[in-house]
Amino acid sequence: MPTTPYDPPELEAGTLRIVPLGGLGEVGRNMTVFEYGGKLLVVDCGVLFPEEHQPGVDLILPDFEPLKKRLDDIVGVVLTHGHEDHIGAVPYLLKLKSDIPIIGSGLTLALTEAKLKEHRIKPYSLTVAEGQRENLGPFELEFVAVNHSIPDALAVAIRTPAGLVLATGDFKMDQLPLDGRLTDLRAFSRLGEEGVDLFLVDSTNADVPGFTPLERSIGPVLDQVIGKAPRRVIVASFSSHVHRVQQVLDAAAAHGRRVALLGRSMLRNMTIAEDLGYLHVPEGVLIDYKKARDLPDDQIVYMSTGSQGEPMAVLSRMANLDHAIEPGPGDTVILASSLIPGNENAVYRVIDGLTKLGANVVHKGNAKVHVSGHAAAGELLYCYNILKPKNVLPVHGEYRHLMANARLAQDTGIDPERTILAENGTVIDLKDGGAHVVGQYDLGFVYVDGSTVGEITDADLKDRRILGEEGFISVIVVVDASTGKIISGPEVHARGFAEDDAVFEDVKPKIAAALAEAAKSGVRDQHALSQIVRRTIGRWVNQSLRRRPMIVPLVIEA
Amino acid sequence: MPTTPYDPPELEAGTLRIVPLGGLGEVGRNMTVFEYGGKLLVVDCGVLFPEEHQPGVDLILPDFEPLKKRLDDIVGVVLTHGHEDHIGAVPYLLKLKSDIPIIGSGLTLALTEAKLKEHRIKPYSLTVAEGQRENLGPFELEFVAVNHSIPDALAVAIRTPAGLVLATGDFKMDQLPLDGRLTDLRAFSRLGEEGVDLFLVDSTNADVPGFTPLERSIGPVLDQVIGKAPRRVIVASFSSHVHRVQQVLDAAAAHGRRVALLGRSMLRNMTIAEDLGYLHVPEGVLIDYKKARDLPDDQIVYMSTGSQGEPMAVLSRMANLDHAIEPGPGDTVILASSLIPGNENAVYRVIDGLTKLGANVVHKGNAKVHVSGHAAAGELLYCYNILKPKNVLPVHGEYRHLMANARLAQDTGIDPERTILAENGTVIDLKDGGAHVVGQYDLGFVYVDGSTVGEITDADLKDRRILGEEGFISVIVVVDASTGKIISGPEVHARGFAEDDAVFEDVKPKIAAALAEAAKSGVRDQHALSQIVRRTIGRWVNQSLRRRPMIVPLVIEA
Predict the structure, then answer these.
(1) pTM above the 0.90 mark?
(2) Which of A53, A386, B276, B528 has the fewest CB atoms within 10 Å, measured from its CB?
(3) What is the pLDDT of residues A348-372, one digit of tens each?
């Protein structure tokens, strides 16, 4: 039940306006717009992956509607890190106006630029690092290091005369990170002392009690599993998880194994990460996949994509014996990743397939081979206590996550009225230390399907769900335009419905009779005749088979 | 990759043949056929619930094919307990021959008979209890009490001259069960001393280390949550979980609350359970739902279905404000159930909806409000050590569960060659203490959709998946039968595809041109013309939109 939309007032001078376009009430398509003095700053521009009630959709974009008439006012897009849910929609925004500058860390921009290249866009970009300050129109930006499941993530502090805002991006607070790059609590302290007027904070794990375990706790497990593996090892993880891949490379090197990277995105991202110095490949460990196949089984590790059971990814294809590498008895497969809700059945199908082939499958359910990239409740409490923000806007999460995060803020003493539970499109104005909801835009889901952007509507998806659950029956009748008499048909075709069109022999005379009756009464209108066909066959299929397929009547005049 | 089917030999005299028809490589539709001396005994006859790649399917039945010509040889169907995955397919078997006797405990038969009544079948039935022995043709049956998440579950020992078989049904070994009815390990010991030749054993939780916690560990949690709840309490669980409902009734009574049951199956099952003495309703605690609404908020508990996020069940409807009871701030909702894989997104949608309405949602993720009904690895080890079976056939589970169970058997010293990893349709012969795979039937999925049984094929489901992901485009052209010239059309209609049929204006001339060309070359065949239409529009949609909808060309001669 989204809030009823209402227009915000004109933006007053000296006020900062904040409008999240995505990422609230969902995990993905994070994007927030800041407006001051007639200029707009965008923080993040990500995609959301569809759920099962959005069939056939490739990606879901934030609704850019509030930006469309104001593209010239956008001073830049700050990207906090290189995950798809933060950078994936950049190409679609830049298709509206290709010279909007993008700002981010070295790795973040390299990953974004690789993505833009696929869309044949070469962006204006500015690489920044933690500690750096930049002015973009009226916005004074300061970047702060944060720790996440991808290197080089940044939080961003935004200063305007209306106050100081801190947006964390995604983060956690691993106190012994592999690359030594901590979430910079000294910077948080300094900003807290200056006075944070509004804190936009990652809520993904706000309902998880305690603390996210150390990323380095996984290393010994990987080391032990790889060390004891009798034959080949296949590790699947996210293709941007540089630190996870680093731990696999190190474990492989320690046990005299070489590593072959599999999957287009894994190869691309790790090449970028190595080139930029984020991935440290032990001397001679990487090997081309084609050469790897000549090595003895106990000297190879394959590092692949497909940890979410994606049917076209390397791991699923291996499990279906539809890949050059065919797992077998003695092989070890490690799923070093989370299990994103909704993917369970797909992942378990892959685990079963691999088990059936004889492989030993190690996963989150039976070994400590994954930790989250997001701050749990205990870590968030540290943040609130260090920052003591005046106002809090929990972002990045389903409603229950946002609510849990607001409660944590309140537990540290922040007034419930100053913890804002917003939705996508909520308009929040900040001035003189006060943050208030002043409007609600009516935003939708923008679906990407193939090269189509925004043409698939929710009505189309409803049709798809009906078609997918019940199939369709089409009835074609050619009638004489003047007499209304049937010239040809009724032909009845069905797909996704039953094995044999012979079941329709019963109903054809009923349709013909209904049309003849209508013709006799002088009905000539094509639409009216179509409705007669629809009702006749609809009633029959519902009563005789207790089913409700889509019915597509086509009455053609000739 | 199912095993290649091959025919078993004729069944030799003195040999027991075992054929699982369902429940192996899947969680559901449990059913096993035993054959001796020309007679057949069936143990369980359940349904499987469809996954997301089986859209629109209501239920999946075991493939009865091997039984169809031998219905007269069936001496009876033993039902181990009253869950859908053990009794749900009985009506469909009895539709083939309605006088096959069914045998089970009081509660099991009552639930089965209620189901059969909906199908207007009144069965021949025989109620049995633990300790009881019955002869059915050549099969000497002995029933043994087991503990499970429904009362009155039974294991069954089957004696024939070929040896002694023990089938557990579903079970766990709660050592302090609420009703005091333990899994009878004394009986297991006695059978073990007699010598169990083949042990068919529940694998559902074989890959879960340790022991399933006590059902009664939930009571204090429910008591505490209900005791502290400021307003209404809504508890959702499985409609057959008598003990869980019992604990809710007790907690409600302890805190001066009354309980209203919601949902057709909840009402039906609990009425049966109370009538048969399995549910002990504290004096005056139950109240009709309509009267409950007049009570003060802090004196009511609603007990409902819908714990798996089923869209039509009470809980989802409440979350969507589509039910007379509208949850709000201060209300407490308890999901006292497991989260079945594949249902995560649906359940989280319900949790989010309820949270957004202001309710406090207590679930497995944040409180100890559910324990499993199946024996974990530690419990299974006890069974193997007490029974010391000669041969083991793990049943009830995905392949990884069967495999984990076989490994447990091997850990207790059973020869790997005597732990049989079978599939549905595997034919196993038992004689002289030896169990051997001798054949493999080629079995399929039998889909129920509406009143249609077995007519939906895998090809229909593939069509549904394409339709559901991509929609369809139909092209209708009426041509002159003799000249091949277009009389009417092409008309192009699409559903689930794009918002506006105007996108097809581009392609219509291309179709007309392709057909004109074909007519010129003398092509008249309707099928050939249809293929030309399909190719023309298929190429266009793929190249211009990068999509692959189903294409339905209809060339009509007039």
Answers:
(1) no
(2) B528
(3) 999 999 999 999 999 988 888 999 9
